[in-house]
Amino acid sequence: MDDATQKAAILIEALPYILGFRRKFVVIKLGGSVMDDPDRMDALLTDVIFMEQVGMYPVMVHGGGPRISAAMKAAGIEPKWVNGLRYTDEETLRVVCRVLVEEIGQEVIDRLDRLGGKGVSVSGRNSHALVATAKQTADGTDLGLVGEVVDVDRELCERLCIGGVIPVVAPIGRDKEGTLYNVNGDSAAGAVASHMRAEKLVFVSDVPGILSDPEDEKTLLSSATRSEIDLLVQGGKIADGMLPKVAAGLEALDGGVHKTHIVSGKMKHALLLEIFTAAGVGTQIVPDVEKP
To answer: With a threshold of 0.70, does the pTM exceed it?
Structure first.
């Protein structure tokens, strides 16, 4: 009986969140080693299907950096990095499109189907779902076909979600002339969240969230404001792969997204625990005025 009562208490705790997020968009950025771990991936996608089944509108955005690098190596193409971004020529772009859409995106869709959900591929490769322009650097460095998202087909994603289908977004953009661009996955997720006017943007990563001491997971911040994040960046506590996530999260807040979250894909069902419980398990990024 105690077990049953505890399960009921968990469901009751989730009820206000289920009601509050019903028919609202939640953008989930897949990343880290979770994408290469079948068990963790299935647990995460089960969370996403649960969200869809209780009336939320999840939209998934995935990356694929390591898989792209491996595919380039197999094709005899040497990756070139400029300011932390993959320089993208036409040959590289063909590999990027194949890996992101035909391999990773299709794998996600197949797994969703096997677990009882429905997914469909969305990108700029064969539509204007993600409108992009060439990314400009402060010093004018040439990045090739690297872009940034400037518009999203909100109506398309909304129709899919209303129909019970989960958009699986590959970060490939297209400009008005039809030129394709390779877009950073974190940046694309932030742009999708902003243009979709999402309630939440959640980054699923290899780390549990923002740590005040990067070497100690016990220093996890359950909540962080822009001011606190600025201090951590200045002090070198937020660096490397966390920087684009935090930057995209802050831009999403500026774009009207209510909250950004960073959770660990290594913890099974971290997505549900972060969204449907008061305590959460990762870090939520909020505007300065919202943190108690």
So the answer is: yes
